Amino acid sequence: MKPHFSTVTKLDNKVPFYRATLKQIFFQKKTKQKMENNDLDAQAALNLENFNHIEQLEFAKFPPPNFSRRLESGVSNGDCLPACIVAALEVLRGGEIVSREFHDSASQLRQQLNSWIEANWLKSCLFSDCFEVGEIIEIGHSLTLQQWLDERQQIYWSDVECLIFSCFFHEKVGLSIVFRIWRNGLLSTTVPDIDYQRTKGVIRGICIDLLHVGEIESNFAHYKLLDGGSLAGRIRVRQQRKRRRRLIKASELNL
Question: Is residue 192 reached through a cis peptide bond, with omega within 30 degrees of 0 on the bond before it?
Answer without folding.
Answer: yes
